[in-house]
Amino acid sequence: MGVLGGLLMAVLLFGALLGAALGWVSALRLREVAARLARLEAEIDRLRPAGGGDSEASGTRAAPAPAPGGQAPRQSDGATAADAAAAASSAPRASRRGWSGPARHAAGQVLAGIRDHWMVWLGGLSIGLAGIFLVRHSIEQGWLGPAARVLLGIVTGVVLHALAEWLRRRTQRHYDAVAALAGGASLTLYAAVLAALHLYQLWPAAVIFLLLALISLGTMLLALRHGPVLAILGILGAYAVPALLGGAADQLATVLAYSLTVALAAFLLMRYVYRPWLWWGTVAGALFWWWIALEAGAQTEPWLGLYLAILAWGMLALRSGNYRLNRPVADATPPVGWRDWLRGDGSAQAQLLKALLMLIVAQAYAISLDPLWSLGPLVWLPLPALILIASRYNEALRAFPWVALIATAAGLVASAVTWQPFGPWLGSLRPVAAEDLRVALVSLALLGLLFSAGGAWHLHARRDSALAASLAFMAPPLVLALAYVLAPDALQEWMLSAASLAVGLALGGFAAARLRAGQADAVAFWQIASAHLAYSLAVVIGLEQVTLTLALAVQVLSLTWLVQRFAVPQLGWLVKLVLMVVVVRLTLNPWLLEYGPATSWTLATYGGSLLVVWLASRLVPAQEGLRPWLQVGAVHLLLLLLHVLVRFQLHDGNVFAPAYGFTEAALNTPLWASFALLYFWRSRLGSELPELHRVLAQILMLLAVGNYLALVTVMNPLWDAASAAVIAHTPILNLLLLAYGLPVLLWALASRYYEPDLRPFFALLAGIGLWLFVSLEIRHLWHGQMDLAAPVRAGELYSYSAVWLLMAVGTMVLGILRGRSALYRGGLALLLLVILKIFFVDMAGLTGLLRAVSFMGLGLSLLGLAFLHQYLGRRRATGDRVPHEAPP
User: Fold this and answer.
1) Distance between CA atoms of 182 and 826, rounded to whole angstroms?
2) Phi, psi for 418 (deg, rounded to 5)
3) For residue 248, what pLDDT is reported?
4) pLDDT at 842 (0 to 100)
5) pLDDT more than 70, % of the chain
């Protein structure tokens, strides 16, 4: 039964092929007849005299219907110009073979292809799937032996290819349906050969992949004849063969090799014809199977990096024929921003750069999942090595070594992070396991050696290349930093610190020799920057947190001296970077790191950093653009030093004590507000950094106002016992003057000399603050302490009214004299408050003569104030400067 079933299947298969061939021959014959009829009608129209009444009708009647799938009849080589015009008019949306022509947008091209060729592609894909499913069905039914099954599939594919070639030669022109038939034949051959290894192990792997390479090469050659349809069905469709055949996870190494073979064949095909959809389809298919292998596990891990490197080589070498990657390639793209670069200009070079970037990111992602230390140091080095070689001669790839280094470093750091979404820092670093420490150190050393040697090789060819110099000199300290982060237990800290310091000294020696030779160029800059980075790493590893910042701040002085001594370009930006690190670190120290009890070294760090930055600002001439930066840094460090001194005194030397009380808040408000006014004043003096001064002024003023509001509300001594306890019994000269009196003066200054839009706010804040300060002092005068629960005495009650009345009168008079209506309205509001208090509070318990005298005094005061308002108003010559409110 098995043999009879197999013979029956073979007969049915060849019958179907014969029927399909005869059907195609008939369809092609009919299309030839339709095309010939169209040419005859066009010739009749051309020979008919002009003005014939039925010419248009006959032309319309003679137009043949297009073939199924949107295919219009094509012309023979002997067609005349009139024939071509007639055929073009009779076939809207005619499909052309077109290996060349104007490039269309990728999405529009795909939609147009689907619209014009959907039946052709579906037919070719169906033939390919038929071959694959025939092989699979014969396997499931057991009709034929393994060798016969594979042989049947190969014979089917060869017969289909022969039929497609016969049809192409028979018709003497291109038809997309014939190309689709050839694509289905290639899919059938792929499936049959892969089944021989994947399912039956009939032949050695070397033979299988040789056959796959021959099929890919043959498909590529035939695609030159049949056009893009064969390319997309034969090359991209080949990626689906392993999924359709199925298999176990331990066979993925074979699938990787197969996928790589298909991709390389596609890249070689694109040497002769390039289509964006073909390019990205190839890249997507290759990365898809790489991702499957990555997720599968141990069987394919040793080959993941090598797979990406070979894929990158195929992208760079096969399309251009630059197999050794040593042919110089100029950068044909103008320099643009990264957004424009990502959008791309549609050129083949832009697509190549994006694809290489995808490979680099894919490798970084794989490293972040597992660096695979147990497999040795060479797993992830092939792709960076290939990029270093290619970028040596390709100008468009000059930045890619840095991209590869940064991506690799990011992947390694991410692999050591244990994510904690609800923790304070969202994650923590997990060092390399003890059994992998040696391999990790060797791997990092090889990584640094690779990039440093590659950068030096590039620099040898391009003597003034800043990118090459930065890679050559920055790679060693960066790798040392990775070793410190990933494997801190591999070496003792003093050994790693000494190694970093030795690297810094070596790089500094190179920089000194270059500067003495008079070469103050970009290479010298990167040597200096690398030396200082290595020095910074050495002090980070070797010194305690308290003294670390001072050691970093010393670099500001050394770099500033180099700026003045040698005209090294861009070295000023390095000074600014180090200065920013020092200032940010000293500003955010209590919140960034955890410290033990502080010592006098804390004051030395802040004071020493201030001294270093101030000395650096004195080294720079006044006309230099670097000096304002150093001056701003020095002023900010002075503010930090004063703040630290306050905390040092208040918390018994523990600068970073987790406490914040009334006394410290009372000191901080005038300190921050004063420096805010100073920064704003400097921004108005025409300084070179007005925006920076203004931003710092806004930040400090916001802190000052927020701190003051906290003193008024949360820390108010009227209801906060801790705040009331630190206020002395001495009248006037106590902490109330510092916490509530001195800010009033600063708010008044801000109402005159700060942001114009905020001046009314600060004027209001000054008025309310003065009223609050006076009221608190009256309370303190009568009780000697601040306690809201203490009863209000009669004399205290009248003191509030008298003082508030004097304040209201004085404010209104000042508003009249200065012509400031807002000031006048503020005094009037306070006067109304005093009147209400007198009527409903002060006189509530009075009777008899005291009540009459009190009302008499209040009435005389109000009449005197009204008279004064009218008198001063008439004395003013201009009414526009006098408030027009009616007298009370």
Assistant:
1) 93
2) -100, 110
3) 64
4) 62
5) 71
What is the secondary structure of 815-832 as a DSSP string? Answer: HHHHT-HHHHHHHHHHHH
Residue 630: which of 677, 672, 688 has the closest Cα? 688
Concatenating the DSSP letter of every residue in 11-25 gives HHHHHHHHHHHHHHH
| 403 contacts 470 by C-beta, under 8 angstroms | no
Beta carbons within 8 Å of 121's beta carbon, 6+ residues apart: 113, 114, 180, 229, 232, 233
How open is the CA angle 122-125-126, to the nearest 5 degrees? 80
pLDDT at 747: 92
For residue 236, what is the DSSP state? I
CB atoms within 10 A of CB 29: 12
What are the Cα distances from residue 354, in Å, to 287, 307, 314? 14, 18, 15
Q: What is the C-alpha to C-alpha distance for residues 669 and 855, in angstroms, rounded to an integer?
A: 42
Q: At what angle do helices 276-296 and 106-141 cross, to 10 degrees?
A: 50
Cα 810 from chain centre: 60
Tokens representing 606 are: 């802040």
Residue 832 confidence class, pLDDT cut points 50, 70, 90: confident
Q: What letter represents residue 109's amino acid?
A: Q
Burial class (CB in 10 A: 0-12, 13-18, 19+), 148: middle
Cα-Cα-Cα-Cα dihedral sign, residues 694, 698, 701, 703? negative
The DSSP H or E segment spanning 524 is helix 522-542
How is 304-343 classified by DSSP, letter by letter?
HHHHHHHHHHIIIIITTT-TTS-S-B---SPP--HHHHHH
Residue 395, Cα to own-chain centre: how many angstroms? Answer: 24
Task: Please tell me the distance from the alpha carbon of residue 115 to that of residue 117, in angstroms, as a whole number.
Answer: 6
- As a residue count, the chain comes to 888
Burial of 579 (0-12, 13-18, 19+ CB in 10 A): buried
User: Rounded to whole angstroms, what are the CA distances from 521 to 463, 466, 531, 817?
Assistant: 10, 9, 16, 66
Measure the CA–CA gap between 651 and 654, rounded to whole angstroms: 5
Q: Cβ contacts of residue 681 below 8 Å, gap of 6+?
A: 753
> Can you read off the two tokens belonging to residue 382?
């092939």
More confident residue, 827 or 318: 318
Where are the alpha helices (H) located in 348-488, listed in sequence order? Answer: 348-369, 382-393, 400-415, 437-461, 466-486
Question: Whole-angstrom Cα distance, residue 417 to residue 368?
Answer: 9
Q: Is the pTM of this model over 0.90?
A: no
Partnered with residue 417 across adjacent β-strands are 429
CA distances from 315 to 320, 341, 399 (A): 9, 19, 18
Where is average pLDDT lowest: 56-70, 369-383, 674-688, 833-847? 56-70
Does residue 27 sit in helix, strand or coil? Answer: helix
Distance CA 350, CA 341 (A): 8
Confidence of residue 63 (pLDDT cuts 50, 70, 90): very low
CA distances from 503 to 184, 509, 538, 559 (A): 61, 10, 10, 18
The H or E element that residue 635 is part of is helix 626-650
Three-state DSSP class for residue 267: helix
One-letter amino acid for residue 188 of the chain:
T
Adjacent-strand bridge partners of 428: 418
Mean pLDDT in residue range 63-72: 40
C-alpha R_g of the chain: 43
Alpha carbon distance, N-terminus to C-terminus of the chain: 121
- Number of Cβ within 10 Å of residue 147's Cβ equals 12
Q: Provide the 10 A C-beta neighbour count for residue 319.
A: 19
d(CA 377, CA 374): 8
Question: What band does 70 get if pLDDT is binned at 50, 70 and 90?
Answer: very low
Contacts of 3 (CB under 8 A, 6+ apart): none
> Quick one: which of 70, 4, 1, 79 has its CA closest to 35?
79
Give pLDDT tens digits for 449-479: 999 999 999 999 888 788 999 999 999 999 9
Distance CA 325, CA 318 (A): 10
